[in-house]
Amino acid sequence: EDKVVQSPLSLVVHEGDTVTLNCSYEVTNFRSLLWYKQEKKAPTFLFMLTSSGIEKKSGRLSSILDKKELFSILNITATQTGDSAIYLCAVGYGGATNKLIFGTGTLLAVQP
Amino acid sequence: EPEVTQTPSHQVTQMGQEVILRCVPISNHLYFYWYRQILGQKVEFLVSFYNNEISEKSEIFDDQFSVERPDGSNFTLKIRSTKLEDSAMYFCASSPDRLGNEQYFGPGTRLTVT
């Protein structure tokens, strides 16, 4: 069965801390791995990774994919209260189109 | 910055009624998707759409569901006869390429079936 597993389920940190969120997957015909930030409603696109070992960075956020070990991590440095959200990992796989299978998400709470 | 929009933001309907959820994808995108998220559960794929036809659909997407791109800008999801278990947040997404590597999501429509 295709699946995406995220850990931890939730995390509470203080502003300025660095956090690492984990995503492991088992899917057939892997195409890409995407990270989203979900605050109130819509998942907001953060990163898309297709190649192993190449880090994607955007400001304080970075992510890397390991296709051999079937996992990805999302790092957030110098966390701010505005980083509080659910972080979703989704894996694109399958046939004619890149349908996404999502993990349950990691709920991150950044306290002042 | 272009974004996916959805209307209405919240729809309440009675069991057995038909509902149509509307989406306007990003204008130069070619691939369109519907996902749903039942409260407290994962986001689930429903259907993908390209070139005016369904590309793939999940087991959830049964004969009660249909999609349409009626006028070149809107993308709709119709549920013919709603059930209580259809209550969920429905997200529309669009992507510029076939691989759908970057899928951009709309704000969602919360459907409540009573």
Summarize the structure in words.
The complex is a heterodimer of chains A (112) and B (114). With 112 residues, chain A is mainly beta. Chain A contains no helices and eleven strands. Chain A starts with a strand and ends with a strand. The mean pLDDT of chain A is 92. Chain B has 114 residues and is mostly beta strands. Chain B contains no helices and eleven strands. The interface between A and B is medium-sized, with 26 and 27 residues.
Keywords:
heterodimer, A: 112 residues, mainly beta, 5-stranded antiparallel sheet, 11 strands, globular, B: 114 residues, 4-stranded antiparallel sheet, 0% helix
Per DSSP, the total helix count of chain A is: 0
Whole-angstrom Rg of chain B: 13 Å
CA-CA gap between termini of chain A:
41 Å
**Oligomeric state of the chains present here:** heterodimer
The share of residues in extended strands of chain B comes to over 45%
Largest interface here, residues on each chain? A-B, 26 and 27 residues
Summarize the structure.
Chain A has 112 residues and is mainly β.
Helix-strand layout with pairing:
The complex is a heterodimer of chains A (112) and B (114).
Chain A: E1 3-7, E2 10-14, E3 19-26, E4 30-38, E5 43-49, E6 56-58, E7 61-66, E8 71-76, E9 85-93, E10 99-102, E11 106-111
Parallel strand pairs in A: 2-11
Antiparallel strand pairs in A: 1-3, 3-8, 4-5, 4-9, 6-7, 7-8, 9-10, 9-11
Chain B: E1 5-7, E2 10-13, E3 19-24, E4 31-37, E5 43-50, E6 53-57, E7 65-68, E8 75-79, E9 88-95, E10 104-105, E11 109-113
Parallel strand pairs in B: 2-11
Antiparallel strand pairs in B: 1-3, 3-8, 4-5, 4-9, 5-6, 7-8, 9-10, 9-11
